[in-house]
Known about the structure:
Layout: H1 2-19, E1 22-23, E2 26-27, H2 32-44, E3 52-60, E4 66-73, H3 77-88, E5 94-95, E6 97-99, E7 102-104, E8 106-115, H4 121-133, H5 137-150, H6 155-167, H7 171-187, E9 188-195, E10 200-203, E11 206-210, H8 214-223
Amino acid sequence: MKKRLCLLLLILTINSYGQENFEKASFINGDLNRFIVKKFFSFSKNTDIGYGKVIVSFEIDTKGKIQNLFPEKYNTKKNVLNAILAIQATDRMWQPAKENGVVVSKKYKIVFNILKENSPFTRDVKKGLKLIEKKSYKKALKLYNKLIARYGYNLQLYQKRYKVNEALNKNTEALLDKGMVEKLKKDIMLNVTLFSKQRKFMRYGFTTETYIGRDAFLRRDIKNQ
């Protein structure tokens, strides 16, 4: 009964997404992932940032201004402070959201996944893709359940599990995942994965660039400006 109620609510949510003409706020000062990571590392200096998760919610108002920063989850006070400062540095660098053509304020989240140097995350993501290619859907589902439980808010993990559930004819579960995909697209501004010592950063769970040490990161970034 409870599952059916959740499904009904989700269907209503999906329908509301379809009815809205919603445009998410957009960053107008280059690559947001690069900007946030550079700022985070510049505030953290060369200190070890450990491992864990930092989630900061904030609002982008109708003038592109950052408002109401709130630490929803964090592993250390220092990391969450650096995350807040990095997000605050984007103040007035936004094209605000629009709903039905009208500029609106909107709340978002940025998720910082700080992993150990030897974290199996990248290996597991690749393993999941191979399992899907081999049509080993039951094994893939088990793996994606584990990844989502550990690394929530990751859009691509939900997208992959949606396809797996669909292939297994798990229609209710697939619909739930589809609803989460739509919600994350709207509410999560950025999902960053950081490796504390090697300074690797990833976008939505897949590696984009690698830097060894904070100084190398900053030198590379300055060189490319």
